[in-house]
Amino acid sequence: MDPRDAKEIEEKAGSAEATVEGSSDGAAQGATPPDLPWLDELSPRQIVAELDKYIVGQDAAKKAVAIALRNRWRRQQVDEELRPEIVPNNIIMIGPTGVGKTEIARRLARLAGAPFVKVEASKFTEVGYVGRDVESIVRDLVDVGINLVRDEREMEVEEMAANRAEERILDLLLPPPPASGAPGRGDAGADGVDGARTEGDQAASTPFIVSTSGAVQRGDDPAVDVGESSDPSPADPLVARRARTREKLRGLLRDGKLEERYLDLEVQQSLPIENMMMPMGGEGMDFNFTEMLSDMLPKKKKRRSVTVTEARRILIQEELDKLVDMDEVVNEALARVEEMGIVFLDEIDKVVGDRGGHGPDVSREGVQRDLLPIVEGSTVGTKYGLVRTDHVLFIAAGAFHVAKPADMIPELQGRFPIRVELSALGEEDFVRILSEPRNALLRQYEALASTEGATLRFTDDGVAEIARVAAEVNEQMENIGARRLHTVLTTLLEDLLFDLPEVEAERLTIDAATVQDRLASIVRDDDLRRYIL
């Protein structure tokens, strides 16, 4: 390659890196996360419309979370002096299982691009007992935020990392010629590949010859014609010939003709520490002890023979690690967690009991007392730094069949000022759930059948019959809401999906008669229904 071209490419790569680094610096500055333009554009009514694409009904709950999400953007527009005083209004959702409580919170977080974590309150115990500490909620939220921001940063530089990995693969396919006065046997080569010369390495250093037909072979004669119409530079014909060979290899690489070729690549290996002894009480540790220990131990390098496909994956990840500044990722993730984090506390009713009781149930109050400082706002230590929870939005949910929200300790009740009740789902709701959402169950099964070359179609009366059966079973047995549709459809299509790879059926129609024929005997038999539906 011409030295001037190489210099120009290097300058372009440097300017592109400076642009990426500058944009990252600007995004990580300040104590608040970067502006989210979609929140600026979406009104609460439009947020509800977005949630309607995936969740049927429950308008009161959607309205409450839409206001809470919009208030986060409004808070960013308030004067700096008043902004810290505005705290989010936490929400408690009351309703039976399977009505959409978790899905509303998850879709809301995805819409806002906010760190989101779902935890079950029943997994936590009072301080001093064996179990998870409530502060691990914040640590899990920080880990989610780190992964979220890192993925965004990697997407920004993914193309640059792929280009760098391609150049490194070309260097491995066509090693650069040794410079005059270059180190001898055993010295390190380019791109982390050591220069220990074996017979195989000497063969690998033999120049490539790529013909116009795409054939790649090695040759010792530099004067062999490779089919190029342009004459090599009279000043240095070997450099010009090597540049042309490299460009031909690049074309073959991009066309996927070298994917099965093997390369010798030096990779780092971490010592296996999964079976090492954990410290006493380690089951309750929420800091990633194994990760910390892995960072402390020395890295071992090993030379592996991998295909071009595997080498591309390894090298792209190495380049992404170089391009993404983890300090900036951590700073932005912590800011986003503090300002936009969402915690969904499921099964909150399981830690609510009679405050006048005695015995082991008294520890439920202890869990509530431990949750109280996290919800009302405190500072939690994580391996990335201190995190304040003053502006984290907490959404609690529970069926409250036995206990009532009034049975919670008064201090915790006051931290959830917004209460919404979600209604149970009926037959009409099931019909809408099966057909309206973008991720509707019927669309999922139609897509699965299409992979086998079959067209699966549900008629309107068939959908209505499926909804009727699900509603009937929910009334006669435990009401598990929309989750009953999964069990009904799985039983309905079990034989069809089992026989589909071997039976040639281009079009399969599920109507009301088919549903009744397949499910009637099960619905009538209480013993079978108890286990199947």
Secondary structure: elements and pairs:
Layout: H1 3-28, H2 37-41, H3 44-52, H4 59-77, E1 91-94, H5 101-112, E2 116-120, H6 136-156, H7 158-173, H8 199-204, E3 208-210, E4 216-218, H9 237-254, E5 262-269, H10 289-296, E6 300-307, H11 308-323, H12 326-340, E7 342-346, H13 362-376, E8 379-382, E9 385-388, E10 393-398, H14 410-414, E11 418-421, H15 427-435, H16 441-450, E12 455-458, H17 460-476, H18 483-492, H19 494-499, E13 507-510, H20 512-524, H21 526-532
Parallel strand pairs: 1-10, 1-11, 2-7, 7-10, 12-13
Antiparallel strand pairs: 3-4, 5-6, 8-9
Helix pairs in contact: 1-12, 3-4, 4-5, 6-12, 7-11, 15-17, 17-18, 17-20
Number of helices: 21
Overall average pLDDT: 75
As a percent range, the share of helical residues equals 40-55%
Structural class: alpha/beta
Question: How many E strands?
Answer: 13
Spatial order of the strands in the main sheet?
A: 2-7-10-1-11
Distance between the termini: 69 Å
Shape: globular
Strand content: 5-15%
Radius of gyration: 31 Å
Molecular structure report:
By secondary structure, the chain is α/β, with parallel strands linked by helices. It has 21 helices and 13 strands. The strands form five sheets. A five-stranded parallel sheet has the order 2-7-10-1-11, sandwiched between helices. A two-stranded antiparallel ribbon has the order 3-4. A two-stranded antiparallel sheet has the order 5-6. Helix 17 (460-476) packs across helix 18 (483-492). The longest helix is centred in the first third of the chain and has 26 residues, at 3-28. Residues 1-37, 181-207, 218-234 and 280-287 have low confidence and may be disordered.
